[in-house]
Design brief:
Length: about 190
């Protein structure tokens, strides 16, 4: 038998990491815990209690001929139209400017009852925004206190170009005036409303 070859093997050294990860993981979990504990959601991040009113004459695509009826799909959820005010907020179209208002801002605000043939103008671009919302709120409060509306239902009909901020301001003013049920009418893009 021959000679045994001997290697001068000092043994295997441990894992040599150039970067120690444990303290960084500890710090990241501490930061995560810190931000979770100090986070308090804003009061603006609340629930908006509004309803989207179903269309009065729905169409269904299919092979069978569908004739719309006068009955809405969800008759139980549709507010009583006799006791409903309609608030119409028309918007300045994209790229448009009227006085100090630019695109997406309210141009005119109207209020209409079921028995009215024409909507009544509440405010237009002659008023600043704060004055326009105050006029709307006064008009809505007078409708409730004058007995014109008994159940406190509103259908909020905002133009398709109206910015979300102003839709929420109109909603807030309806709620502040004392109306309990605010329903949204789905906007139709490009359509002119009366």
């Amino acid at each position: 038998m021959g000679q045994h070859s001997r290697h001068n093997d000092p043994g295997t050294p441990g894992v040599n990491l150039g970067l120690i990860i444990t303290p960084m993981l500890d710090m990241s979990f501490q930061l995560l815990a810190f931000f979770i504990m100090i986070y308090h959601p804003s009061a603006l991040e609340g629930h908006i209690n509004g309803n989207l009113v179903p269309p009065t004459q729905p169409l269904i695509k299919g092979k069978e001929k569908n004739t719309p009826t006068d009955q809405p799909l969800l008759a139980d959820s549709d507010p009583d139209l006799e006791d409903t005010l309609q608030v119409i907020v028309k918007a300045i179209p994209k790229g448009g400017v009227e006085r100090s208002r630019t695109d997406g801002m309210p141009a005119q605000i109207y209020v209409k009852r079921k028995e009215d043939t024409e909507a009544t103008l509440v405010s237009d671009t002659d008023d600043d925004m704060a004055e326009a919302w105050n006029k709307l709120k006064k008009r809505l409060k007078s409708s409730l206190s004058g007995g014109l509306v008994t159940k406190g239902n509103i259908r909020l009909d905002c133009g398709a170009d109206l910015k979300h901020r102003y839709v929420m301001e109109a909603y807030d003013n309806c709620k502040d005036a004392g109306f309990q049920n605010v329903s949204f009418v789905a906007p139709v893009s490009g359509a002119k409303k009366n």
